[in-house]
Design brief:
- The structure holds two protein chains of two kinds.
- By secondary structure, chain A is an alpha/beta fold.
- Chain A is 37% helix and 17% strand.
- Chain A has five helices and four strands, in the order βααβββααα.
- Chain B is an alpha/beta fold.
- Helices cover 37% and strands 22% of the residues of chain B.
- Chain B contains three helices and four strands, in the order E-H-E-H-E-E-H.
- Chain B has a four-stranded parallel beta sheet with strand order 2-1-3-4.
- In chain B, strand 1, helix 1 and strand 2 form a beta-alpha-beta unit.
- The longest helix of chain B is centred in the N-terminal third of the chain and has 15 residues.
- The radius of gyration of chain B is 12 Å and the shape is globular.
- The chains are: A alpha/beta, B alpha/beta.
Chain lengths: 152, 90
Amino acid sequence: MASVNLNDFIPDGCIQISQANSFLEASSKAALLLEQAGVVKAGYEAEVIQIIKENGPYMVLAPQVAIVHGRPSEGTDKTAAAVFISESELISGSEKNDPVRVIFAISATSNEEHIEMLKTLALFLTNSGVVEKMQQCSTVSEVRDIFSQYLQ
Amino acid sequence: MKLLAVCGMGIGTSVLLKMNAERVLEQLDIEAEVDATDITTALRDDSPAQIVLCTPELQDQLGGIRAEIITVDNVFDLNELTEKLQGSLL
């Protein structure tokens, strides 16, 4: 049986460990990784920011973790995820889950593959301690190593 | 029984909520259908959803919905989901 892990959904260049001055800036950087990899349409990052501004930080759905995305696409986008790990603590306004350190940007497809990606992400994040492990990483390959340790 | 998992667009947070709620409901041996949807559709939906699941920041936008709202702080904490669903359903 083929085993799936998060790396299968994260294109090359779509993991970044860096500084951000705000939750919005970090979300923007995560979304831009997807745009730069060519897996989502141009303008995707602007949609991501608009959704956060319109609806508040409801996508900060676990301590230190946010999962952001744009509007569902009309079939041009590929199923993919990007990760931005912030070197500093970011305040999103989420009462229970601030500060944010890890932001996943996902494309907004609605096919079987999208569900498969979310399932993989859910199973990964349900493991306790993985978010802390991600924050301790200083290189992209360390992050990839963590993802590959958690097979579906 | 029907539950709605709700988020802004119906394709991210709500799908993850649905997945983990289904895991918990199965463990609790409760037969229920969980649908993931966006806020607009949830407010329009006149189907008899008994419970609406969302993260706390969406609660205000769901005012007036005809269902019990359960807010989930940590979508990946199966214990929290178990406690809250048990509290409402059993």
